[in-house]
From TrEMBL:
InterPro entries tied to this protein: ATP-grasp, ATP_grasp_subdomain_1
Naturally occurring in which organism (per UniProt): Kosakonia calanthes
Record keywords, A-Z: ATP-binding, Nucleotide-binding
Protein name (Swiss-Prot/TrEMBL): ATP-grasp domain-containing protein
Bilayer-spanning residue ranges: none
SUPFAM superfamilies in UniProt: Glutathione synthetase ATP-binding domain-like (SSF56059)
Gene3D superfamilies given in the database record: ATP-grasp fold, A domain, ATP-grasp fold, B domain
Ranges where the ATP-grasp domain occurs: 195-401
Length: 412
């Protein structure tokens, strides 16, 4: 895979997530770069940018606990980080973020590589009554760049109060972000024609143990549910702890292997196609308009693009190319469902993981503004993907300029 111009890892520039994701996708071993970052940080212990870069590198290498400790150290010194535009800057976007792992916030730098937009990463103080404790840098528009989860409910409430009467436009306001939390979204999007989302219902380990032990049947703890079901720990992301369960015996095995005291339970929907394969699409809504980001094809119902075999299988890539090229038809088929997501959440920017059911409905797995969206795939292996991802990048840029009241004189 061809890399774009690599950032200078030896500098003190804030790197964000993009260069590490790009190397991961390209299969580049950046452990030596991480060692270089460790040396830099140790030689400059009072340089928070270096520690923040190291934190991102560690989490990108799956050393999440260590990465979070390093991030905490950086934030104790500094809460605002500047990701400079790669072209002459024309707009300053203030991104309000929370401390956390790589899925906690919108990784907008991954989409806006080589742009003319300055990104100001402002990590709010999640433990303070006033989350905006650091000085506010000059900016043109604000985005609440936080992904919705149970853990962020309180900080989003405090941010809603802090942003009342804000002098600049606010995108993804806190109240709207909360609508995309898994349980909230599963209730909010009920009774939409052509849309299917299975309610994510809370249950406890104790209740599931009662089912596993035969003291209760499933319908007694989760009304109107029967096997098969999908179970995941509350607060989990990226498929961690997510499992399809077909019987009470499998519940017992799942609990023995999975930590946590609170769980989401949902009905399993078989969304396989006539060929037995499953297809999961990632779509983003930008100011209410849908754009295609990718489609994963797999023989397994739980699809993650990185392990679906897309890089190894030319036929799967050809299917994804058809999805891109025929996306206008897809968007028209599901226009009412997509419009409802935009209108009911009130979000200016949101990611959607979805599929089509065997009877033609839009099946929603998850909505989340913090989904990773990027244009980093190799243009030789994915020859038409860059054309479609450029539409996403331009739409994002256009929305930011329009909301900021700035003239959009050209495109990237």
């Amino acid at each position: 895979m061809t890399l774009t111009t690599a950032p200078d890892f030896s500098s003190a520039q804030f790197l964000g997530m993009a260069p590490f994701l790009r190397m991961s996708i390209a299969g580049v071993d950046f452990s030596s770069i991480t060692q270089e970052l460790i040396a830099q940080a140790q030689n400059n212990p009072d340089a928070p940018v270096l520690w923040m870069n190291l934190a991102t590198a560690m989490m990108s290498l799956k050393h999440e606990a260590l990465g979070l400790q390093i991030q905490e150290q950086a934030l104790a010194m500094q809460r605002v980080y500047h990701w400079p535009a790669r072209q002459t800057p024309k707009l300053r976007l203030l991104m309000l973020m929370v401390p956390g792992n790589l899925s906690a916030n919108i990784p907008l730098d991954c989409l806006l590589e080589n742009s003319d937009i300055d990104l100001l990463y402002y990590y709010v103080d999640a433990n303070s009554d006033n989350p905006l404790t650091a000085p506010i840098p000059e900016h043109d528009v604000v985005m609440v760049a936080i992904g919705a989860s149970d853990e962020q409910e309180n900080v989003l409430l405090r941010l809603a109060f802090a942003l009342c009467g804000w002098p600049k436009p606010v995108l993804n306001p806190p109240k709207s972000v909360s609508t995309s939390e898994r349980h909230n979204a599963s209730l909010l999007l009920q009774n939409v024609p052509g849309l299917l989302i299975c309610p994510a219902l809370h249950t406890s380990r104790q209740q599931l143990q009662a089912v596993a032990g035969g003291q209760k049947i499933l319908a007694e703890i989760v009304e109107e549910h029967d096997f098969p079901i999908i179970v995941r720990p509350v607060g989990s992301h990226g498929g961690h702890g997510l499992q399809k369960i077909d019987s009470a015996a499998e519940v017992a095995l799942y609990l023995a292997q999975t930590e946590g005291e609170a769980f989401f339970v949902s009905r399993f929907v078989d969304y396989s196609g006539s060929d037995g394969l499953f297809r999961k699409m990632r779509v983003v809504l930008i100011d209410g308009k849908p754009y295609a980001c990718h489609m994963g094809v797999s023989a397994h119902w739980m699809i993650h693009y990185v392990n679906a075999g897309m890089y190894e299988d030319a036929d799967k890539r050809a299917q994804e190319a058809r999805f891109f090229n025929e996306f206008a038809d897809f968007a028209e088929r599901h226009r009412a469902a997509l419009d409802a997501i935009s209108q009911r959440t009130g979000l200016h920017y949101i990611g959607i993981d979805c599929a089509e059911t065997q009877d033609g409905k839009l099946l929603i797995f998850e909505i989340d503004p913090a989904m990773v969206v990027h244009a980093m795939d190799d243009d030789v292996m994915f020859p038409n993907k860059q054309v479609h991802m450029l539409k996403v990048k331009n739409a994002m840029r256009e929305m930011l300029f329009q909301r900021a009241g700035k003239a959009l004189d050209d495109k990237e």
